[in-house]
UniProtKB/TrEMBL annotation, chain A:
<dbReference type="InterPro" id="IPR010065">
    <property type="entry name" value="AA_ABC_transptr_permease_3TM"/>
</dbReference>
<dbReference type="Pfam" id="PF00528">
    <property type="entry name" value="BPD_transp_1"/>
</dbReference>
<keyword id="KW-0029">Amino-acid transport</keyword>
<feature type="transmembrane region" description="Helical">
    <location>
        <begin position="58"/>
        <end position="80"/>
    </location>
</feature>
<keyword id="KW-0812">Transmembrane</keyword>
<dbReference type="InterPro" id="IPR014342">
    <property type="entry name" value="Ectoine_EhuC"/>
</dbReference>
<dbReference type="InterPro" id="IPR000515">
    <property type="entry name" value="MetI-like"/>
</dbReference>
<keyword id="KW-1133">Transmembrane helix</keyword>
<feature type="transmembrane region" description="Helical">
    <location>
        <begin position="181"/>
        <end position="204"/>
    </location>
</feature>
Automatic annotation (TrEMBL), chain B:
<dbReference type="InterPro" id="IPR014337">
    <property type="entry name" value="Ectoine_EhuB"/>
</dbReference>
<keyword id="KW-0732">Signal</keyword>
<dbReference type="InterPro" id="IPR006311">
    <property type="entry name" value="TAT_signal"/>
</dbReference>
<feature type="domain" description="Solute-binding protein family 3/N-terminal">
    <location>
        <begin position="68"/>
        <end position="301"/>
    </location>
</feature>
<dbReference type="Pfam" id="PF00497">
    <property type="entry name" value="SBP_bac_3"/>
</dbReference>
<protein>
    <submittedName>
        <fullName>Ectoine/hydroxyectoine ABC transporter substrate-binding protein EhuB</fullName>
    </submittedName>
</protein>
<dbReference type="InterPro" id="IPR001638">
    <property type="entry name" value="Solute-binding_3/MltF_N"/>
</dbReference>
C-alpha cells in the first residue's frame, strides 16, 4: 500500500465520520421532534409526525440519497454529495429513532405525568422536567443501536459519489487489485469507528443512569483503577 | 413558579450535577454535533441553474474563468483510473490533461463515480465532463453531447500462445468451429452470431478475469473482446501462457461493425464546447500525438479513429 492510497483511505474514513456525525445530528433533532409529536394530544400533530415516520422509514436511504443528488438539481438546488448523504441518513434514521423516542416517553409511568398535572405543570413543562429526563435513560441504548446502524448505512450512500471509506476502498481495490487487503482494512476501519461510538454511548448511558440517582456498574476504567489500587 | 425552584432530590451518587444541567449539557452536545455537520456542509448547498443555455452554451468560458475542470470518471483501466499512487491516469485522463491545457484550462480535478452514475452525475452538475472512455451509443446520444471519438476500438482474440487454431477474424472462428468466449452483454456475442458462429460454440463469461481463466484452462479456444481490453488485461496477468491476435475490424452485414468508439461527453446544450474540444482533438489525431498519449495504455494505430468517424455518425447507429 502506497502513501497515496493510505491518504485516500484516511480521507475516506474522515468522510465516513462526517457522514455519521452529520447524519446523527439530523437524526436526533428529527427523532426528538417527531417522537414527542407522536405523543401529543393534538390529532393533526400526531398525524403529521406519523406521516414523516411512515414515509421516511419506508424509503431506502440509497434512493433518498440518489434523489437529493440527481433529482433535486432539476428543481434548481444542488447539494454537495456529502451533505445529501447526511440528509438522507438523518431523515431515514430519524424516522426509526422517532419511534424509539415515542416508546421511551410512553414507557414513563403514567403516575409521573399525573403528578406533573397535580403540580400544575404545563404540558411543555411536564415534557421537559418530568417525561423526557426519565425517558432519556430508556432511549439511550436503542439510540446507540441506531447510531451504529447509521454508520453502516453510510457505506451504502457512497454510490452517489461520496468519497467515503467504502468508495475510496473500492477505488484502491480496482487500481491495485488487492481485494483481501483493502476489504480487511475496511472491516477494521468500520470496527474501530463503531467501537469508539459504542464507548461514547456507554459513557452517556452511565451518566444518564446516574442522573436518575441509580448507581451504574463500574466501567472498565474504574475496574482497572480498582484493581491497580488493590494490588498496590 | 414552583417549578423554577424545584431541584432534584439530593443523592450521593449524582455527584451534585442537577438533572437540568445534565440535560442541558447533553442537548448542547447534540446541537453541537448537528452544527458541526452543518458547518461541514454549508459550502455544499447552492442554487444551480440546469436549464439549457442557448447558443451553444458557456461551458468553455466558465472553465477558463475557473481555471479548472471537473472530470467524472469510473475508475476503469486503461481508460481513466487511479494508479498505485492514487493519482488519476489512463488514456482518457491523460488526453483530457493535454486538451484542456490547450483550451486554456490548466487544472483537471478528477471526480470518481460509479459508471452507471456518470451520465446522471453530469446532468445534475456534479462534474463538467465525462472522461471515462465511454462508448458512444445512440441511446446515450439522447442524454449527453459526445465529442468526436478519441478511439475506435479494434477487435482481437485472446488465444493460447502460438494461436493453434490460426484465428484472425470472427469469420475464421466460424469456419474452424472454434469455441468463442465472450463477456455477458458485450457486443462480441452479436458479432459472433452474425458471423456464423453457432450458439453452442459461444460461451458467456461474467467478467474479464473468468474469461481469461477460460482460455487458460482450455474451456474455450479464444476470447473475443476489444484488442485494447485484451492487451491491458494480459499485461496485468502476464503469467498466463496466452497471446493477443493482431487487431481486426469486424464486418457484419457487409458493413464495418463499431465495437466501441469512446468519447468525452458534456451536457447536451454545450455544443460550442464540443466544437472547440473537437478542434484540439483533430489536431492531436492528425499530428499523431493522440496515439503517443494513448500508447502506454495498450492502444495501437488500429484504435485511432478515422477522420470521418464523427460523434454524429456513431450516434446514428
Amino acid at each position: 500500500m502506497t502513501s497515496g492510497q493510505l491518504r485516500l483511505l484516511l480521507e475516506g474514513a474522515l468522510n465516513t465520520i462526517y457522514l455519521t456525525l452529520g447524519g446523527t445530528g439530523i437524526m436526533l433533532v428529527l427523532a426528538l421532534v417527531a417522537g414527542i409529536a407522536r405523543t401529543h394530544g393534538n390529532r393533526p400533530v400526531r398525524f403529521l409526525a406519523g406521516c414523516y415516520i411512515e414515509v421516511f422509514r419506508g424509503l431506502p436511504v440509497l434512493v433518498l440519497a440518489f434523489w437529493f443528488v440527481f433529482a433535486l438539481p432539476a428543481l434548481g438546488w444542488q447539494l454537495a454529495p456529502l451533505w445529501a448523504g447526511m440528509l438522507a441518513l438523518g431523515l431515514n434514521m430519524g424516522a426509526y429513532a422517532a419511534e424509539v423516542v415515542r416508546g421511551a416517553i410512553q414507557a414513563v409511568p403514567p403516575g409521573q405525568t399525573e403528578a406533573g398535572i397535580a403540580l400544575n405543570l404545563s404540558r411543555w413543562q411536564r415534557i421537559r422536567y418530568v417525561e423526557v429526563p426519565q425517558a432519556y435513560v430508556a432511549m439511550l441504548p436503542p439510540l446507540g443501536n441506531n447510531l451504529i446502524e447509521l454508520l453502516k448505512a453510510s457505506a451504502a450512500v457512497s454510490i452517489v459519489s461520496i468519497p467515503d471509506l467504502t468508495f475510496n476502498g473500492q477505488l484502491i481495490r480496482m487500481s491495485s487489485g488487492e481485494t483481501t487487503l483493502v476489504f480487511t482494512g475496511l472491516l477494521f476501519g468500520y470496527a474501530v469507528i463503531a467501537l469508539v461510538l459504542t464507548a461514547l454511548m456507554r459513557l452517556l448511558e452511565r451518566r444518564a443512569v446516574r442522573s436518575l440517582g441509580r448507581v451504574p456498574e463500574p466501567g472498565m476504567l474504574r475496574r482497572m483503577l480498582r484493581r491497580a489500587e488493590a494490588t498496590a | 413558579m414552583a417549578v423554577r425552584n424545584a431541584r432534584p432530590p439530593f443523592h450521593p451518587f449524582t455527584a451534585g450535577i442537577s438533572r437540568r444541567r445534565f440535560l442541558r449539557g447533553t442537548a448542547g452536545a447534540g446541537l453541537a454535533v448537528a452544527a458541526a455537520g452543518t458547518a461541514v456542509a454549508t459550502s455544499g448547498c447552492a442554487r444551480v441553474d440546469l436549464t439549457d443555455e442557448p447558443g451553444g452554451g458557456t461551458l468553455l468560458k466558465r472553465l477558463r474563468d475557473r481555471g479548472s475542470v471537473r472530470v467524472g470518471f469510473a475508475n476503469e483501466a486503461p481508460y481513466s483510473f487511479l494508479d498505485k499512487n492514487a493519482d488519476l491516469t489512463g488514456e482518457a485522463a491523460e488526453l483530457a490533461k493535454v486538451i484542456f491545457e490547450r483550451l486554456g484550462v490548466p487544472k483537471v480535478d478528477p471526480v470518481p463515480a460509479d459508471f452507471g452514475a456518470l451520465i446522471a452525475g453530469l446532468r445534475s452538475g456534479l462534474f463538467d465532463i465525462i472522461g471515462a472512455g465511454m462508448s458512444v451509443t445512440p441511446k446515450r446520444c439522447e442524454a449527453v453531447a459526445f465529442t468526436d471519438p478519441e478511439f475506435n476500438a479494434s477487435e482481437a482474440f485472446l488465444v493460447p500462445r502460438g494461436n493453434p487454431k490460426g484465428l484472425k477474424t470472427m469469420a475464421d472462428a466460424a469456419a474452424s468451429g472454434a469455441t468463442v468466449g465472450v463477456l455477458l452483454g458485450a457486443v462480441e456475442a452479436d458479432i459472433a452470431e452474425k458471423s456464423g458462429v453457432p450458439d453452442g460454440k459461444i460461451v458467456r463469461f461474467a467478467d474479464q478475469p473468468s474469461a481469461f481463466d477460460g482460455v487458460a484452462g482450455g474451456r474455450v479456444d479464444a476470447v473475443a473482446l476489444t484488442s485494447i481490453s485484451l492487451r491491458w488485461g494480459l499485461k496485468q496477468r502476464s503469467g498466463l501462457n496466452l497471446e493477443v491476435t493482431p487487431p481486426y475490424r469486424p464486418i457484419v452485414d457487409g458493413q464495418e461493425f463499431l465495437a466501441a468508439a469512446g468519447a468525452f461527453a458534456v451536457r447536451p446544450d454545450q455544443t460550442g464546447f464540443v466544437e472547440a474540444f473537437n478542434r484540439e482533438l483533430h489536431v492531436l489525431r492528425d499530428s499523431g500525438e493522440l496515439l503517443r498519449i494513448q500508447q502506454p495504455f495498450g492502444f495501437t494505430k488500429d484504435d485511432v479513429p478515422a477522420p470521418d468517424l464523427t460523434a454524429e455518425k456513431v450516434c446514428q447507429g
